[in-house]
Amino acid sequence: MERKKTYIEDIDRGIYDIKDEVKYSYKTGKGLTPDIIREISREKNEPKWMTDFRLKSLEIYNSKPIPTWGADLSGLDMENIITYIRPDTDMQNSWEEVPEYIKDTFERLGLPQAERESLAGVGAQYDSEVVYHNIRQELVDQGVIYTDMETALRDYEDIVKEYFMKLVPPNDHKFAALHGAVWSGGSFVYVPEGVNVDIPLQSYFRLNAPGAGQFEHTLIIVERNAKLHFIEGCSAPKYKVNNLHAGCVELFVKENSSLRYSTIENWSRNMYNLNTKRAVVDRNGTIEWVSGSFGSKVSMLYPMSILRGEGARSEFTGITFAAKGQHLDTGTKVVHAAPHTTSTVNSKSISKDGGYAFYRGLVRVAPDAYGCKSSVSCESLMLDNESKSDTLPVIKLNNDDIDIGHEAKIGRISDEAIFYLMSRGISEEEAKAMIVRGFVEPITKELPLEYAVELNNLINIELEGTIG
Fold this sequence. Notes:
alpha/beta; 35% strand; single chain
């Protein structure tokens, strides 16, 4: 007898889809014009060089076509996107001072509890601005700087000017230019030489307003012989209009230092997620990316590691979960620009209900980057016959003194495996969930505790209502 499949039209995402009443103290009109850009810069009281930078970025944005090589972006209409919404509060250093409705949102998401139990510093952004920021005093005493980008531009202007959008220049692609024009909020971290930040820092980005964009900028500088783990969380409720996320992350990992950057992106199904993330790593430095992509209607996200110092190392561990109506085009890029550099890529994707998971990766080895090692593993799991999964792992090698390995596997859950578990008294739904959890376990164990729990909860939510 053929087993029937049952589907639910949409998935209850619980706390993530709770909408707040849209309150703000200021917002721009829809669309993109030089006047709107000047308005944003004027509202932020920025120096002239930043205003000029924004206007130049807008020119670049208008000169570049929308990419056609990846996911379909034809439904994104910038004329109907609000690029700047300031919440009705200034940034606070105490949760008690944050407006009640915003505080309730972050309480639901578990941020205050996580701060109390396992974090050395927290930043919380709501729509276009950071509303709360705090860092433990012992880190301040060691010279660690952790603040929002607006404060950094005011208090550490020389550092920001030296590094801001140098790694991801506006002419990199159309949405990098858009970011350069309308960026707002985000995090600035500076770890001095020799400082080991034992407990993670975390920023959480919540987009509440419908038809809006979020364009936070994260800039992290880890000086020589230093260490940091930075956690980034993102979510938004579902609306019937499109939202846009085009943030930018720039990471500078200096000699003998290490940075782990963990992200769970849990955007709603009306979100275009067009984020750009890039790290440059000096001699014997290490960058570790831990990345989970779940929400959004469309994602195009490829964290990049530039290994420019001899002995530099990068690790990328990623999981993508594409369900009905989702096209998640994700992966990573690694450039071996110096000798004896090493990289490891471990990517897993799951697709169901007609979702499309596409791995797009690049490993490039420079002519003089001899003695390099790279290992790439891509695994895709399809939960039904309607889903799609593809891998496009591009490898460009410009010398022969290297050790490169690649493997890719695409498959679906076997009826035999489900039958075996059911014969041991396990329900069909739980059997499938067990197999999926086993598939993602190598990723889960790399996540911070609260995000590992969140990932397992998301798997349970996503699989609920699908049988067979």
